[in-house]
């Protein structure tokens, strides 16, 4: 990024899609907005040192969403609360089943079918091999098939 206008363009074009991605991963609009704000702040602070800011943003949002869920899980187990997260009413039983998947499988499902990312891009975002993405996707779809049938 050579000048501030590059950051402004990134903010304008990527903020809403990244909030959607994070909301799909975390199940919370509020958390998603905070996560995207943190990711954008990291990009702004690094400035020109990021070669592909959009890819960096997507990867950072995915990782921060994962960290958020991990923190929630730890807080819940520490307080012995077993409350199920409140899902947005726009989502149906399929979304409920997706939310019950382990994060690695859920992230592959969300990136592939909700974000329409290619297998190769998912591998880049998650920092794993293409074969790993394919196997996670296969396992996730199989779990969903079993649960929803």
Explain this structure to me?
This protein has 149 residues and is mainly α. The protein has two domains: 1-83, no CATH class; 87-149, Orthogonal Bundle (Arc Repressor Mutant, subunit A), CATH 1.10.10.10. 77% of the residues lie in helices and 0% in strands. The protein contains seven helices and no strands. The protein has helices spanning 4-26, 29-46, 53-79, 93-99, 103-114, 119-126, 130-148. The longest helix has 27 residues, at 53-79. It is globular and about 50 Å long. It starts with a helix and ends with a helix. Residues 80-84 have low confidence and may be disordered.
Share of helix, binned:
over 70%
Oligomer class: single chain
Q: In this structure, how is the largest beta sheet organized? A: none
The end-to-end distance, rounded to whole angstroms, is 48 Å
Outline type: globular
Q: From the alpha-carbon coordinates, what is the Rg to the nearest angstrom?
A: 16 Å
**What are the secondary-structure elements, in order, as H or E?**
HHHHHHH
Strand residue content: under 5%
Q: What is the number of E strands?
A: 0
Counting helices, strands and paired strands, the structural category is mainly alpha
Tally of helical segments: 7
The whole-number mean of residue pLDDT values reads 86
Poorly predicted spans:
80-84
**Number of separate structural domains:** 2
């Amino acid at each position: 990024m050579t000048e501030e206008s590059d950051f402004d363009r990134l903010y304008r074009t990527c903020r809403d899609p990244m909030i959607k991605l994070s909301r799909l991963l975390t199940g919370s609009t509020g958390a998603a907005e905070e996560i995207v704000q943190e990711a954008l702040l990291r990009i702004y602070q690094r400035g020109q040192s990021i070669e592909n800011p959009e890819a960096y943003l997507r990867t950072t949002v995915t990782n921060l969403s994962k960290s958020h869920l991990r923190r929630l899980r730890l807080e819940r187990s520490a307080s012995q609360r077993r409350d199920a997260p409140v899902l947005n009413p726009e989502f149906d039983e399929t979304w409920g089943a997706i939310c019950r998947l382990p994060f690695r499988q859920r992230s592959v499902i969300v990136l592939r079918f909700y974000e329409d990312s290619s297998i190769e891009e998912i591998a880049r975002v998650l920092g794993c091999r293409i074969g790993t993405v394919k196997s996670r996707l296969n396992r996730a779809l199989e779990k969903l098939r079993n649960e929803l049938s």
